[in-house]
Amino acid sequence: MSGAGPASPGRGGPAAPPPADRRRDSPAAGSPIQPIIKDVGEIYSRLLDHRPVIQGEIRYFVKEFEEKRGLRELRVLENLKNTIFETNERVLPKCEQAMQDNLSETFKRLQAANAMIHKLQERECEAKKLQADKVMAREEKCIAHWEEFMKEQQKKRAEVDEEHRKAMERLKEQYSEMEKELAKYVSF
Fold first, then answer.
1. What SS3 class is residue 45?
2. Are 50 and 16 in contact (CB under 8 A)?
3. Cα–Cα distance between 152 and 159 in angstroms, integer?
4. Distance, CA of 163 to CA of 158 (rounded, Å)
């Protein structure tokens, strides 16, 4: 059974004609070899030709896989449906109620915090305004003091200038008198 003989259809060469044609062409058409060839063909198809068996196994596997997968998907979908129903009917209303309760309390806290911050901002603004007023008053006081100081300095300068002028006049008079007296002594 090397597969090279006439009893190996479909293996390695052109397809052999159907068995009915073989009887016509075969020289021993009525001879005792005919049952042997038939037996060899049956043995070959049972032992070496596995296509029908494999096709049956494939059909069985696909059928089982689709049935099991279909049931598994149905169970998953049923579980999802139950979970969604439970969430919509029980969990969601509880969450909404808890959220409403907590949100109102949180909103009140936020309003109180906002009011406190507003008061702090007002106090800070007032403190800044007072500080700015104090700084402005100090600046005005310093400017007034500076102007008074400068006026006083002008007066003192005028007085010093006047004294200096008078002293210069006295010195001029004194020196001119001294020159006159010197001129008297020089003429001797």
1. helix
2. no
3. 10
4. 8
In the structure encoding, which two tokens stand for residue 141, read together? Answer: 């006081």
Per-residue DSSP letters for 78-137?
A: HHHHHHHHHIIIIIHHHHHHHHHHHHHHHHHHHHHHHHHHHHHHHHHHHHHHHHHHHHHH
Per-residue pLDDT tens digits for 130-184: 999 999 999 999 999 999 999 999 999 999 999 999 999 999 999 998 888 888 8
pTM beyond cutoff 0.85: no
The backbone torsions φ and ψ at residue 14, rounded to the nearest 5 degrees and listed phi first, read -65, 150
pLDDT per position as a tens digit, 71-100: 777 788 889 889 989 888 888 888 888 888
pLDDT at residue 2, as a whole number: 42
**Which residues, 6+ apart, have CB-to-CB distance to 8 below 8 Å?**
1, 44
- Joined together, the tokens standing for residue 92 give 């969601």
Block residue for tokens 């008198």: 177
